[in-house]
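Risk register update: the risk of archive-format incompatibility is retired. Evidence:
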Amino acid sequence: MTRPCPAPPADTATYSYLLGLYLGDGCISPHPHGGQYLRIACADAWPGLIERCRTAILTVRPGASVSLVQKQGCVAVSSYDRHWPCLFPQHGLGPKHERTIALEAWQQVIVGRHPWELVRGLVHSDGCRTMNWTTRLVAGERRRYEYPRYFFTNKSADITRLFTDALDVVGVAWKRANAKNISVARRASVALMDAYVGPKY
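Archived output:
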């Protein structure tokens, strides 16, 4: 008999963060003998992110098994549990950008309470903080200036919209660089992102 889906996680802030990681670099696949695997890919370059992802999974599903599977250039943070599809109903066949991604009502409530956590999870999965540069002519001398910027890149228009909707809620100004790239470059908005998101580590 199929077990009923569990209630939404008690730690809704951590769930909102893990949702961002899942939407960016996560997938759910069936185990040959029943149950489901949640896998979130984290680049080797960010050991802090790998540990943070592992901790988030254990917080959302206490008692679930978590393993780190080394792949080429990344670690798959993997967890076996029968109820991952209940907790991430965006699970489905095919790449996320080829199907509709929409939040359930209970997820919308959680994201509404914790928009920064969703933004952080999305940036930690499919975003980055970079240094851009430009030159200016000052007193006849051309000088180079550097300034920080955040980028978020995702092929799914639905996931990109979830990201920009959350940015609107928290007061971060953004621009669309192209169909799949969102840029945050205004000084005040970058300062907000630094305070609540920060670079990967």
